[in-house]
């Protein structure tokens, strides 16, 4: 299995390489000058030019790209242009927010989503998405949801941390619940139709045991496969939710970085995002082998 | 041998035609498909009827700003005194246009990439690595970056969303095409000397059309939602163009005193997404044999 | 409000003799903690490189300058006790206030002042300020002399600049690179804790060297007294988050809010709002180097179509009508001279000018940004007004950085854009120079150069005023700039906080809690 994981990781290398070149090119294609963001709108032109020089933004793109890669190779993700801190520390600082948000959201999503799916509730994900999006926007604007910011667990205690995040987390969860419920429902319907369930019923096993023990376990197989997608949807959703609720998380970091043309910050953070995505998918595959004994890595 | 192939193909086509007819009948009797279909039909009609209001959606009348819904202004007016009923109808044009173009372009390009990957092993690894790379970023972030790079145009929103949604579509088509490729009649066609082009167009593509169609309806719905999210972040179609996302983004500032500005386009987005999803659910039930047909 | 405006007219000298009218009778108390919900995060606390409001609001509590802005935004000595101007405004002799100490206990000497000036000239974004310096003299530890090559009657006004403030740092900071200083100043508060992008805490400087020459605080200068033990700055970029923090009691005061939010505070007797004027000027800038707007007649046609009241109503910002590029209350304010170019709201005139220019429906590009809704709304209304005058318009909405870069470089194919000029106009006509010269498309530089030369060289006020009128008229008549209005900022606070007065920067000295 370790060999498989290593193989999967090595396959990820070209993907991440292509990905990082794409992100680099995209960022440098954006009109607008990071030096203007740093100097301020009313700064004299010489000052802006001075900053461009200091940052090495006057050099050819290819030189800047190669330099970035050279730094990456030794594990240096660079220094944010606007925050004056290293990309890694900026990310680490905001990671707890996004992680907490995703975690609480996942805690809501999994039981509710799977539960609803199992009782075959027929939720339509994107209708929910839209309603949730609008409710969140309207709610925040009207003050139904106080965007109270983030309270670190060591400051506000478990409850303070949880209380500050529960609303955005629920909103974020609602985006995913429909999707998960649907998958669960169709998987459940498939399973309920299979021979071994019919056999169980015929043998007189009571209905609860049939559903709970036999059907549910098998339903989890397809559900686990979409867990990776759910996680990446969570991360994508958190970008919007963090904007709406003013949470100082990774999503906000990236969006602010894009708006400020903070090249190293956006490139570095996106690369970490991409890496996390790859790792999550490998983890999902491993969990898969535990849930479905038929699948083995050789 | 050639004769045998011809027979197989002929009967294959006949079966396909009969199946198409059966699918259509099933769809007509499928409750959620029909509800979705009617919702979308009504929205398209509303969008086409927008000019009938006789009002310029961008005409400002500052004197009449922030009027709540009433006789002359069914949906009220916004901060510039523009008629929100007219704007919401024109918004349907723009938003549905964005949804449709994103769905069609994603479908066409995704299908092309998926089928090419399935047919040509050499292309496969390259194309799929690129798709993986695109998928490594959350779609919305990719769209934000692309939208900002391409500049403030409706078509840049469309391009950004197409690029963001292609990978998943391409993967779905490729998966389906890989299965088809291994079927006996394809093997037979290949042995009979059918060109790659013919195999791709005549066999791989038609067999992937079910999942592709289903996926496209969802892309349609996502695109309408994403337009709203992008407009919220200021990267949507350029104002004063009345897209639903724009109306909401502009009204957000005044949500307390003038709730109606956000309400109607918000409702319209929800309804359009609901319609497209019901439609997609119906299609999936009928076209995708792995899922059960209901009602 | 009226009382405050009236006060702004008073001169600094008069102010020094009067007790400040806004101070309530309640007794000031020492102690207490206050949380201030400020805007987005802080990159650095290096005063020499600080241009953003959020950074400066902190910096002016920690650092001080030789000369600073008073309550009516004119220059007033702060770390200097006295300034003598000689040699036809080429020689400035600063006598330092005695016994002023840095937060680390060191005494402020002319050595430290020299080191700070030299560092400023090397690293500051605004280093151009000292370009004309011929040399410095340090005759003794309490005297510092600046010698200029050319006469500059406005030098002290420029030296007071609260953006990129020329703060005096300890001597050992001299060789520190930009944005890498120790946060040690002379101000009434010291830096206690700072978690980047999250929060920052200031603590009362118990050994602050008070300026006893003044009866009370005066702008950024005067007799400043810190009553509060600590001030905590929470960095909340989202205005709605700031508002909620105030409503929920997590914050005692909040920085700029959208004007619409005032309504939400109306039923809270424990919360009060402040409208701060002057804050920014909303202006349309035309691109005289691109397409249609190279023609003066087209630019003037655009100006003729502008309806100020409509724009201000739609933007929802608190605004004051003002035809001039300087604020009312300033001796340079030109009410009548500029009003011929202001708020024409005359579509017939616009059509006539268009016809005269031979306009045939070519597309006029209006560029704006989605970051500042008041700029976007102004452009949208202008587009509507121009359409009615028969102009084919295209609105391009980009993000603020693109908009701002395009404005400075003349790139991005636009004809009109809206922008907010904030700190610089506050400081007076001399500060407009850089803002005007940034625009590469303003071609008739010769006239401007000559007027500015006279303005800087004249020791008397009258010729300086005349020179400024020429400059302002040139900009407005040519419709390079089309003035819309003065925009105010809206802030709010909990009434347990006493001594809050509207000022460009939120100040926490001479405020206290009950």
Describe it.
The complex is a heterotrimer of chains A (298), B (295) and C (514). Helix content of chain A is 79%, strand content 0%. Chain A is built from eleven helices and no strands. Residues 120-126 and 139-148 of chain A have low confidence and may be disordered. Chain B has 295 residues and is mainly α. Helix content of chain B is 74%, strand content 0%. Chain B contains ten helices and no strands. The longest helix of chain B is centred in the C-terminal third of the chain and has 37 residues, at 196-232. Chain C is α+β, with helices and mostly antiparallel strands and 514 residues long. Chain C has helices at residues 2-9, 12-17, 53-62, 110-123, 155-159, 239-247, 262-265, 296-305, 308-315, 335-339, 347-356, 373-388, 400-409, 423-426, 429-438, 445-457, 461-477; strands spanning 33-38, 67-69, 75-77, 80-86, 91-96, 133-140, 143-148, 189-195, 199-204, 217-218, 221-222, 230-235, 253-257, 271-286, 319-320, 363-369, 392-398, 416-421, 481-494, 497-498, 512-513. In chain C, the strands form five sheets. In chain C, strands 1, 8, 9, 12, 13, 14, 15, 16, 17, 18 and 19 form an eleven-stranded mixed β-sheet that branches. In chain C, strands 4-5-7-6 form a four-stranded antiparallel β-sheet, with helices on one face. In chain C, a hairpin with a 2-residue loop joins strand 10 (217-218) and strand 11 (221-222). In chain C, helix 8 packs antiparallel against helix 11 (347-356), helix 9 (308-315) packs antiparallel against helix 12 (373-388) and helix 16 (445-457) runs antiparallel to helix 17. The model of chain C is unreliable at 1-25 (pLDDT under 50). Classes of the chains: A mainly alpha (298), B mainly alpha (295), C alpha+beta (514). The B-C interface holds B 58-60, 62, 65, 79-80, 148, 151-152, 233-235, 238-240, 253-254, 256-257 and C 258, 260, 263-264, 309-310, 313-314, 316, 369-371, 373, 376-377, 380-381, 383-384, 387, 395-399, 402.
**What's the pLDDT, averaged over the residues of chain C?**
88
- Count of alpha and pi helical runs of chain B: 10
Oligomer: heterotrimer
Q: Please indicate the percent range of residues of chain C in DSSP E strands (runs of 2 or more).
A: 15-25%
Rg measurement of chain B, Å: 23 Å
Unreliable residue runs of chain B: 1-10, 290-295
